[in-house]
Design a protein that fits this description.
Blueprint: H1 3-6, H2 9-27, H3 35-54, E1 92-93, E2 98-114, E3 130-145, E4 149-161, E5 174-186, E6 190-197, E7 219-228, E8 231-240, E9 256-266, E10 271-282, E11 294-305, E12 310-323, E13 326-342, E14 347-356, E15 366-367, E16 390-399, E17 405-416, E18 423-424, E19 430-432, E20 445-457, E21 462-473, H4 475-479, E22 486-496
Amino acid sequence: MQISAAMPGLRLFRRFQSSLNQNQINNDPSGRLNHNFMKKGNRILLSILLMFFAGGISASAQSKIALVRYDDDFTILKGDTVKSGLDQLKYIALGRNNFISFGGELREQFQWYDNINFGDVPPTFSSTDATQLMHRFMGHANVELGNHWRFFFQLNNTLRLFNDNPVVAEIDENRLSLHQAFAEYKLTNWNFRLGHQEMYYGNHRLITFRDGPNTRQAFDGLVVKTKFKNGSLDFFAVSKVISKQYAFDDESMHDGLIGIYGTQYFSNQKVGVDYFLVNFQSHARQYNYQPGFENRETCGIRLFSNLKTANFELEGAYQTGRFNDLTIDAYSIMADVNVTVLPEVKGIMGFAATIASGDKDNTDDKLNTYNLLYAKPAYGLAAPIGATNVLSLYPYFRINPVKKLNILAEVFFLSRNSSQDGTYSPGMTQNRPRPNGLYNTDKKSLGEFYVLETNYQHNKNLSFAFDASYFNPGSYPKATGNGKNITYLSFKSTFKF
């Protein structure tokens, strides 16, 4: 199977356009779009136009827009009395040594799926294909009172348009929510933060804010951060916020997450080590479709480098605890080695491997299924599987052929780790096999997954991304369902200020 044969670009774009037209006809067979739909569509189109219009307006070159917006750094504007453009939204004086700053993000993402979940969808779905526009707007205010107190507030609005299938819970839509709202008390080397807040650690394989999906992830609770020479240490006691579809209806305090995460650098920050210990308690997750109470400990270590030519990343985690009357005994291992082969265009070639345990024997008194906790989707938005009970091998190539343009190409060779356990979604919901098909097959191959990601960072505020992926299913998806090829295309525009 060759990518060129499986993904002819012209044919895919024609099917993409045809799918959109058909969805519009299905939504309104009379030919008259309803008033609410028109209002939504006009708002989205206006948003896109405004993004392009505003693209040339960038904030100060020495400021920083961070992955999590409470880490933005616009301190260079603090003493500036003459600001222009978007800089006027930053460090507005509220009296002596008190300031308020405003910011936000507008993201529009056009997606096309062919054969969602290998063609296996619930009866409530109208189609195994999907054409959709994912809209996200987030606006925030950061209030600094003196040298110690800080208050951060962020509103979230996410919508999914043009798709008749049911929305994916916690992912597709949250029409209006108070996404973040916390108070922070700062000392020289200590920060105490209480409230709704985004979190992430390491390479996002344990806890993350989950930027790829339409609705980001937040947590509710206490985080204490301390810094020391060449390192940092976080203590946290939080509960994941459950994102709901409608206005101000989010929930929290259902799951418990308590732990520490530390980082220590060596050799002038060229080599680092992360270490973590986390306790997770929940009634929400099921294993082989069995519900129960889970009390799970995760301990692990991550080694990584930031060298000039060759780099590495190694991570291992072990889990123990109880799920109902079962003893948890699970693990995850990751290794990544890469080399810069084209320095003039930052061309990097690498190879990585990951393995996460699955349950070995459904008749014993142990549970070997690794819990991803709140990790990022391991294989992006197109693949319907997470890293649990999966062995993956993947070469990749990253390059910056022209200034501001990043390209990543990778191929995942995937299989089940244990034939006595199924596959799980990135959110740890078992999706294969169905409950009546447990232990019916010993097939392991999940298939090959081809990924192309491009990102053009026009300036600090405006970026564009095009992604394409193709999943050629192996013997296991075919033995447990339709096993059809998955194709995914995406174009994304993001404006941040």
